[in-house]
Amino acid sequence: xxxxxxxxxxxxxxxxxxxxxxxxxxxxxxxxxxxxxxxxxxxxxxxxxxxxxxxxxxxxxxxxxxxxxxxxxxxxxxxxxxxxxxxxxxxxxxxxxxxxxxxxxxxxxxxxxxxxxxxxxxxxxxxxxxxxxxxxxxxxxxxxxxxxxxxxxxxxxxxxxxxxxxxxxxxxxxxxxxxxxxxxxxxxxxxxxxxxxxxxxxxxxxxxxxxxxxxxxxxxxxxxxxxxxxxxxxxxxxxxxxxxxxxxxxxxxxxxxxxxxxxxxxxxxxxxxxxxxxxxxxxxxxxxxxxxxxxxxxxxxxxxxxxxxxxxxxxxxxxxxxxxxxxxx
Length: 329
Known about the structure:
This protein has 10 helices and 10 strands.
């Protein structure tokens, strides 16, 4: 008999509703939350700096958002034919500095305008390690493969993480008193830092998260890292790089998030969307058959359920799916 530990049910006071304003921020695991929420038609805003791993940079970035900061060309670094911001993910880099700045500033201003409308921030911390740019002695979010000798690598202490994020959380809550924060630790191991360093880094983040949860009633913790490490203790649940969780692992972690943080109304929305797409992916061989007509009526019925049940949600994409299939008639 195969023995395993199973993570217990997670109780949460936070319940995400279909109409809530959501925001995801942090490591690449935060992108998984964004994609899954977005495809399920939740009103979710991505972090305007892109993927960011360390909590010190995250704190700095929120301060820039709250202040309504606009980036200038002096904030950019030119390397390998591209303009980069050391505060941003590489997806913001480009060959035209004006376009790069316009994109960055559009995103940061959009976040600033929407922060006071948000209900829940989902924040995923990846690593306690960060880099300091020696030319300015400033902490950066991304080195963009600039020469390594231009940076100093450091590891933030638990006290430093707690202090910086507690200050940021307080400012966010003053800006938006209804904001709730779901804090989680990325299950991705950063083994390029070394096995021991990765473990120390994750431990620092977990302790800091626990302290922040104790400090603020609006901060809640979702144990994604613990589910992955203590329940899914099997390399069947990682990608070929043996580091990143694969789809089966993310699905499993998501199921805990779904059970714990979604309201019954949100679960209803997700269930109806799943049924719509399960049917839409079904292939009917003969578009002129009575079977196909029945199939279209069934699909239209499921679309109507979504539109009438959730009138404040945009189901344009689902309409396009239905009309595309109907055009084959």
